[in-house]
Amino acid sequence: MGTYVNPGFDNFNSSMKNKFYVDKSMLIALLNEKIGTDDRFLCVTRPRRFGKTMAANMIAAYYSKGCDSHEIFSDLKISKDPSYEENINKYTVIQLDMNDVMKNKGKADLMSFISRRVIEELKEEYTFLNDEALLGVAIQDIYKKTGDKFIFIIDEYDLIIWDNRYKDELECYLDFLISLFKSNASSRSIALAYLTGIMPIVREKVQSKLNNFTEYTMLNAKNMASFMGFTEDEVRSLAKKSGMDFGELKRWYDGYNLRGLEVYSPKSVISAIEDHECNDYWIQTSSYEAVTDYISLDLDGLKKDVFTMLSGGRVEVNTSFYRNTLCFDTKDDVLTYLIHIGYLSYDAYTSSCFIPNNEIKDMWAHSMERTKGYQDVANMIKGSKELLEATWNGDEKVVSEGVAKAHREACSILQYNNEGTFQSALHLAYYYAKSYYTIVNELPAGKGFADVAFIPYEPNIPAIIIELKKDDSVENAIDQIKERKYPEALENYKDNLLLVAISYDSKTKEYFCKIEKAEY
């Protein structure tokens, strides 16, 4: 077994020893169907911490010649699949981790470095190889003389695409990939190619440079969706096994919906279960610059969309024209990029994007403090904790002032003033409340719809019904809550329910608030 050629099962075996290991081995059954077909070239991309490397190691462990992987796969789902015995340990696997390659190649030419290191290992079995050959030529020679076919696995294949440190290597790297996977001579020797990373393949205009690859992304995962992260059933099972509250895990880490399948970040879920605490594990492993550098450009009024999403809304996005590089021409390019790297989720049915969960919501909040042009938004978020505490304490003056400030900022950013703006401002003003509540707009209640309802998932805090009014009194708003029996929708919280009315005068620009404890 080598570093790059037939690496064996040690890396995957280490992952399996995790107490909370989740069996994703049926990915192999899907790949087995594609071996030797026109669909044998796959590019599977998803955000950091979504299990890309473990999947790559599993694939290498299964296919690699020179070892017997039966024992480690014997208790996994794939062992029951009809294709299991046909393909296990039957191929020469070449596995490259581009992060490792770029760290070790020094000043050497990229193509020459990879070819030299891989051919050195291939020569242990194929002694006739020429030391000076490039990798594409070497695998052609092996195939011609022996009939042996190869499986290529390239992890972090897109590192050179998105990391500016390697921008001078990009063309050379793309030429290397094309020489392996687009050349008719070398591609015949490949039984399967599996590229994985964060970003899809770079596109030149509309045409991909590697258009023979089928792409599976956060925009369209196809039948790969259940392998792009943990499914809801898998997280529910982990919660039961660990004694954690599934609802809490869902609030923190759910939100990535791949055409109807809910997908969670494996790293975040496992970290929470191991610590027995939900926390911001994303922030610990990612850089704020992934957001701040690009939303500060404010392309096509991007700030309005960011404000809308921070307020709990969704914005339409056209993902069709993004070239999968770090060069952005429109706000749609920026939003599409943020979807690919996991900072936003995408709803394919409505072509809209949004902030998926509590963990990413907190990351966005911290990013606002570091983003040029967003200090006003950052200040609103900072003040949201004080506003929530003031609401709990019945401090009507602080609440009216806090909502007034948020509403004025919302009008300046969104550049219109209507009921929707007022509601968006309220959501951002109470940004911190999302750590304690499920916040629902237009909640069906009694004889109508409550404007906003805060439904607690933390114990011993009050539920809240908020009625918003323009050019009307807060007394009338409170009366409406009572007369239309909105509290009936939150009857389970009748002993701890606050009724909040907030109004503003469009002429005088004054804001008013009234807070009462519900009485039954």
Keywords:
520 residues; alpha/beta; five-stranded parallel beta sheet; five-stranded mixed beta sheet; 23 helices
Task: Give a brief description.
The protein is an alpha/beta fold and 520 residues long.
What does this structure look like?
The chain has 23 helices and 18 strands. The chain has 520 residues and is an alpha/beta fold. Strands 2-3-4-1-7 form a 5-stranded parallel sheet. A 5-stranded mixed sheet has the order 14-15-16-17-18, sandwiched between helices. It starts with 9 loop residues before the first helix and ends with a strand.
User: What strand order characterises the main sheet?
Assistant: 2-3-4-1-7
Catalogue the unreliable spans. Answer: none
| Gross morphology | elongated
Q: Can you summarize the main beta sheet?
A: 5 strands, parallel
Q: Cα-atom Rg, whole angstroms?
A: 27 Å
Quantity of strands, as a count: 18
Distance between the termini: 74 Å
SSE-based structural type: alpha/beta
Strand and helix layout:
Blueprint: H1 10-16, H2 26-34, E1 41-45, H3 52-63, H4 70-73, H5 84-87, E2 92-97, H6 98-104, H7 110-122, H8 135-146, E3 150-155, H9 159-162, H10 170-181, H11 184-187, E4 190-197, E5 203-204, E6 207-208, E7 214-216, E8 230-231, H12 232-242, H13 246-253, E9 256-258, E10 261-264, H14 266-275, H15 281-285, H16 289-295, H17 302-310, E11 315-316, H18 331-340, E12 345-347, E13 352-354, H19 358-368, H20 375-392, H21 396-414, H22 419-429, E14 437-445, E15 448-456, E16 463-470, H23 474-483, E17 497-504, E18 511-517
Parallel strand pairs: 1-4, 1-7, 2-3, 3-4, 16-17
Antiparallel strand pairs: 5-6, 8-10, 9-10, 11-13, 12-13, 14-15, 15-16, 17-18
Helix pairs in contact: 1-3, 19-20, 20-21, 21-22
